[in-house]
Amino acid sequence: YLTYQSGRESNARSYPRRIPIALREGKGIVVKDVEGKSYYDCLSGAGTLALGHHHPAVTEAMQDVWKSGVPLHTLDLTSPVKEAFMKELLAFLPASFARDARIQFCGPTGADAVEAAVKLVKTATGRTGMMSFQGGYHGMTHGALSLTGNIKPKQALGSMNDVQFLPYPYAYRCPFGLGGECCDETAAHYIAHMLQDPESGVCKPAGMIMEMVQGEGGVIPAPNRFAARIRQMTKEHGIPLLIDEVQTGFGRTGKRFAFEHADIVPDVLILSKAIGGSLPLSVVVYHKSLDVWQSGAHAGTFRGNVLAMAAGTATMKVIQQEKLEHHAEQMGLRFESHFHTLRQTVTSVGDVRVKGLMIGLEIVNPDQPADRLGHFPADPKMAADIQKMCIESGLIVELGGRHGSVLRLLPPLIVTPEQVDDICTILEKAIHRCER
Ligand code: PMP
């Protein structure tokens, strides 16, 4: 399997290089490879599998579609499946946001929704520039990539959207060299200054896009106070705030949507991954005042796949019935307490960041000189060694962060306390062995 793939698939493939296994089956949080070896899947299809692999409710919902004979592709025509999906999504959102919301179905990926959201605010405001955050990730299509922080594939592509990058509070590696709360306070001041001062040379943008927790960027939660300041400033300046919850949405962070932690609502909400219950689907939800598009202004053949909508409706129902956002919060705390104990005995875990079931361990090199905050440099090599060791021991974790040195865990929301303990045991052993 692997030889064939490495010989014939595009050189852009990335997961297979770090996770060199061929999968045969998956159930819940466990996947098996073609040789029958089991792994805990803490990547969950990059966060799409909120309920794990082949959850009975999701499977049943898809089988119902199959049996009912509803056309699998309806363009943007409606169907009973689509009606049920829209109703469920609006009920799943906070009422204050859902009341006046409009839904735009986009292509299958998160990047498709980002593209649509940017077009929408450009059309609504008549302005063309955007603001985005350093370290943020919004996808790999041309427009979405222009909003994504400065990653390698971007550098060779020449001119892109006009995007102004703003500092994102990251206390551990604060862009201002400040720690703790000073980092988010200073970032907020800096942004306020950019927006207010005509001398700053900043043109008023069509919108500001932000993740509530930077996922690919290394699991960096925006402090609530910072997010609230951003909401207040964007309101004052008449700049639509686009919150990208492609990864953080649907219970992942301990609330249904991560913006709820900061008690704010966006103008535009960008959703994908878990919304399709593991099938490709993305939508943008926005305030009706922004619904300025002419009919056909945003089109595309694949918008709202019927099977994905059925799977998504079932996923939302299960999250709601089983209060999985609370479970995610509890399980996150359990992970955190394991890592707290781990840090007493290892020196290479510089920081632990947990927001529900978005978990990041920043791997550092304590043999190198520390920065002025006392933090050691990132150690991507050791992070990769730990990842490899985890995979050999039956645990799939991913790497992320600006230097590729953050071990990321995104287990399905249905992970049990026993599984959390098992996962931590494997991870702890791998870290200890790599430290020696
Ligand atoms: N936004 C965020 C916050 C993401 O995490 C991702 C994917 N990791 C995207 C957008 C892009 O989604 P996709 O890969 O489906 O295009």
UniProtKB/TrEMBL annotation:
Its cofactor is pyridoxal 5'-phosphate. Keywords: Aminotransferase, Pyridoxal phosphate, Transferase. Pathway: Amine and polyamine biosynthesis; ectoine biosynthesis; L-ectoine from L-aspartate 4-semialdehyde: step 1/3. Its EC number is 2.6.1.76. Pfam families: Aminotran_3. It comes from the Bacteria. GO terms for molecular function: diaminobutyrate-2-oxoglutarate transaminase activity. Gene3D superfamilies: Aspartate Aminotransferase, domain 1, Type I PLP-dependent aspartate aminotransferase-like (Major domain). Belongs to the class-III pyridoxal-phosphate-dependent aminotransferase family. This is Diaminobutyrate--2-oxoglutarate transaminase. It comes from Marinicrinis sediminis.
